[in-house]
Amino acid sequence: QVQLVESGGGLVQAGGSLSLSCAASGRTFSMYTMGWFRQAPGKERELVASITSDDTTNYARSVKGRFTISRDNAKNTVYLRMNSLKPEDTAVYYCASELLGEFRYWGQGTQVTVSS
């Protein structure tokens, strides 16, 4: 059974930084694309960043240049480094793992709150 466990959320002032981690288990981590999504109150869940098995990355336009996704296959962990945080980055952040071209496995989410 695939399990994804996020950690690292919290409260930070605008302009600050946070790092999120997602520990995966239950499958061969290195073979699959991993993603970070977020959902703010009243809004749809959106893809923030993704990283493929060969480390190709993709970012939402709103976070490009501020956020960095990375993975450590030896630790079965994917990271999201968030710099220059803005109040509009406030959301619950979810880690997800791809299967057959879709993100099918999800973590429980971690809250990120950016105060102005």
Describe the structure.
The chain is mostly beta strands. Helix content is 0%, strand content 55%. The protein contains no helices and 11 strands. The strands form 2 sheets. Strands 2, 4, 5, 6, 9, 10 and 11 form a 7-stranded mixed beta sheet that branches. The chain has a 4-stranded antiparallel beta sheet with strand order 1-3-8-7, with no helix packed on it. The relative contact order is 0.31.
Order of helices and strands: EEEEEEEEEEE
Binned strand content: over 45%
Structural Rg: 13 Å
Q: Figure out the total of helices.
A: 0
- pLDDT average, as an integer? 96
What is the molecular shape? globular
Structural class: mainly beta
**Portion of residues in helices?**
under 10%
Low-confidence stretches: none
| Alpha carbon gap, first and last residue | 40 Å
How is the main sheet built? 7 strands, mixed
The number of distinct β-strands equals 11
Tags for this model:
116 residues, mainly beta, 7-stranded mixed β-sheet, 4-stranded antiparallel β-sheet, 11 strands
Summed up:
The protein is mainly beta and about 120 residues long.
Please render the helix and strand layout as text.
Layout: E1 3-7, E2 10-13, E3 18-25, E4 34-39, E5 46-51, E6 57-59, E7 67-72, E8 77-82, E9 91-99, E10 102-106, E11 110-115
Parallel strand pairs: 2-11
Antiparallel strand pairs: 1-3, 3-8, 4-5, 4-9, 5-6, 7-8, 9-10, 9-11
